[in-house]
Amino acid sequence: MMPDRLTTTFAALADPTRRAILARLAKGETSVKEIAHPFSISPPAITKHLKVLERAGLIMRSREAQWRPCRLEAAPLKDVSEWVERYRSFWEQSFHRLDDYLFKLQTKETKKHVRKKQP
Amino acid sequence: MFEKNSPEVTLTLPSDREIAFTRIFEWPRYLLFEMWTKPEHVRHWWGCAGSTLTVCEIDLHPGGAWRFVMRMADGTDHPFKGVYREIVPAERLVYSECYDVPSLGTPEWLTTITFEELNGKTKLTNSLLHPSSEARDGHLQAGMEAGMVQTLNRLAACASVLAEAGVTNG
């Protein structure tokens, strides 16, 4: 996944209302009215959030039915989690190696120090 | 996946364009800065478990280039390169970073490493800023500190969405 698509996904996920919408859609497809129900914000505001999510490829809105149900698209979320996991794991392994290396250096230094002290 | 994270390296989303990884080290920050900026040290630790750095070039000044090639145990090479933007000894490093494989379009991002003292330990934050040059330059002008302020830890929220959506890595 290219970083610019990642950025779009992260930007879409950065808003708590949009995450709540995704969490709702994770339970199954539903109407815009149903999505808007738990929120105390205007229908145009909800529509705006849905557009952001749609542009990020996180939801699909059916054009077949009159009520245009929304559906969660899991692929970008999976891409994000895979990318993050790869990156995190790279640094976790590097940091382990860094700790090991520093411990080795420290041990060497201590030994040198001890040797110096002994006549 | 998020919930599999070990407590060691934690992930946060400090802003819409940033992803940050944080880890506490038992070492003083000046030492970690040395480890991060001298090839004779970097080649001992940078890279996945079992890999070796076959190339490790560092020209440590603003505008200077760096280039690493990580060779995995299976013999495959993974080249990375970038340019240093800002160097504050023992405090902060800013550099561009790119997985140097032209067939993948060599996506570039901006990395900021901050070394913060924390009761004798060091809190190291590796923050990635994606991706446009406008965003990057705007970010540099706005000052890194502002961008580094972790207003929200959105990890839990993201993880819950991912979990509910049944998204897992195998």
List keywords for this structure.
heterodimer, A: 119 residues, mainly alpha, Arc Repressor Mutant, subunit A, two-stranded antiparallel ribbon, 5 helices, 2 strands, B: 170 residues, alpha+beta, eight-stranded antiparallel β-sheet, globular, disordered N terminus, disordered C terminus
Secondary-structure topology with pairs:
The complex is a heterodimer of chains A (about 120) and B (about 170).
Chain A: H1 3-13, H2 16-25, H3 32-36, H4 43-55, E1 59-61, E2 70-72, H5 75-117
Antiparallel strand pairs in A: 1-2
Chain B: E1 10-12, E2 18-25, H1 29-37, H2 39-42, E3 52-58, E4 65-71, E5 77-88, E6 92-99, E7 108-118, E8 121-129, H3 133-142, H4 144-148, H5 155-164
Antiparallel strand pairs in B: 1-2, 2-8, 3-4, 4-5, 5-6, 6-7, 7-8
Gyration radius of chain A (Cα, Å) is 25 Å
Low-pLDDT runs of 5+ residues of chain B are 1-7, 132-170
What's the helix count of chain B? 5
Mean pLDDT of chain B: 74
Query: What ranges of chain A have pLDDT less than 50 throughout 5 or more consecutive residues?
Result: none
Alpha-beta content class of chain A: mainly alpha
What's the total count of β strands of chain B?
8
Helix content of chain B: 10-25%
Strand fraction of chain B equals 35-45%
The number of distinct β-strands of chain A equals 2
Cα-to-Cα separation, first versus last residue of chain A: 62 Å
Number of domains of chain B: 1
| CATH homology superfamily of one domain in chain A | Winged helix-like DNA-binding domain superfamily/Winged helix DNA-binding domain
- What's the SSE pattern of chain A? HHHHEEH
Can you name the CATH architecture of chain B? 2-Layer Sandwich
Going by helix content, strand content and strand pairing, the class of chain B is alpha+beta
CATH level 1 class label of one domain in chain A:
Mainly Alpha
CATH class of chain B: Alpha Beta
